[in-house]
Amino acid sequence: KRVILSGIQPTGTPHLGNYLGALSNWVQLQRDSSPNDTLLYTIVGWHALTLPQDPKKLLQSRREMLATLLAIGLDPSRSIIFHQDHNPHHTELAWILSCLTPFGKLKRMTTWKSRLADSRNANNESEVNESLLNAGLFTYPVLQAADILVYRATHVPVGEDQTQHLELSRDIAQIFNQTYKRLFTLPEQLSTPSKRILSLKNPATKMSKSAPDVQSRILLTDSHTQIKAKIRSAVTDSITGVTYDPETRPGTSNLLTILGACTNREGREGSDVAADYRSKGHGELKADVAEAIEELLRGPRSEFGRLREERGYLDDVAKDGAEKARALSEITMLDVRRRIGLS
Ligand code: TYM
């Protein structure tokens, strides 16, 4: 019996990287799961607060993320879909776990280290500007561990960028088990078959919601015209012909990865796709990539357009999901409180 859990931040519209790297796998797992499996998918509003958010926009993004999850095919009668901030057990457990987490482990998180580096660059000094960094950014991975452990999840489908956070979750679970009586199973990462999707403008970095250039990402809400324009202007190289070589040709290879992932649910490798383009050029590749993305997103996009207006329905789904989630996490919390002497 598996307990599958994953989360996504409600910061703006999800992009193709989120979809191919994570969300499509959530739907696939729902399809392949046995009736004994529990599936939990959460929209992590508390994690979003680690960066400044406009309250009105956050409320809207949070609702739109729920509409997105439904639009791509998650079924609330099969999967427990809920807002993290509707279940206080996450923060309760996060506090308890933070008292077991070595400071040094958090300091080694690459996400934290890159935030530190950003705060240095912004001031062009060797000193870290502490006023740019909040404590939540530092303890972010502990809250993520709590999201997972509070349901005693066995499997966590995430993209490769979350591997270190998953390792930390296992470390924290182990520390709890050693300090108290064994309670947590160690959650296993389920990597999505398709690789990391890169920025269309700077293929040295991953496609991200926060990159300033909106041309660098395809949004799940983009029209056919927008998709075509963004792919046409994607950065490639001036080498003739199309080959798959992520080291020397990251832009071209990223397009092949996208094409492979869009045209095959199991995630055909970019290297396999390249064979079809041996005698073709970037122009043809780009045209095919744009069509494949359009093909993939057309259904979810129109479903999203319909659902985002259905406020009452979305509120009902969220309320129902939160109730189911809380009933499950309460069982863990009773156990946790008893073990630590706070029952
Ligand atoms: P977030 O919101 O940044 O991303 C959600 C999911 O999308 C994947 N992803 C990508 N995959 C491939 N290519 C990309 N360019 C790309 N960008 C994002 C991420 O790997 C992720 O699976 N900390 C998490 C949210 C979280 C969570 C959790 C996840 C909070 N609690 C508990 C799992 C379990 C995050 O920031 O994801």
Automatic annotation (TrEMBL):
Highest taxon of source: Eukaryota
One annotated GO biological process: mitochondrial tryptophanyl-tRNA aminoacylation
Reactions the enzyme catalyzes: tRNA(Trp) + L-tryptophan + ATP = L-tryptophyl-tRNA(Trp) + AMP + diphosphate + H(+)
HAMAP family per record: Trp_tRNA_synth_B
Pfam families according to UniProt: tRNA-synt_1b
Species: Pleurotus eryngii
Entry GO MF terms: ATP binding; tryptophan-tRNA ligase activity
CDD domains from the UniProt entry: TrpRS_core
Organism placement in taxonomy: Eukaryota, Fungi, Dikarya, Basidiomycota, Agaricomycotina
Top-tier EC class: ligase
Cellular-component GO terms for this entry: mitochondrial matrix
Localization (cell): Mitochondrion matrix
Name used for this protein in its record: Tryptophan--tRNA ligase, mitochondrial
Family to which the UniProt record says this protein belongs: Belongs to the class-I aminoacyl-tRNA synthetase family.
Keywords: Aminoacyl-tRNA synthetase, ATP-binding, Ligase, Nucleotide-binding, Protein biosynthesis
EC number, as in UniProt: 6.1.1.2
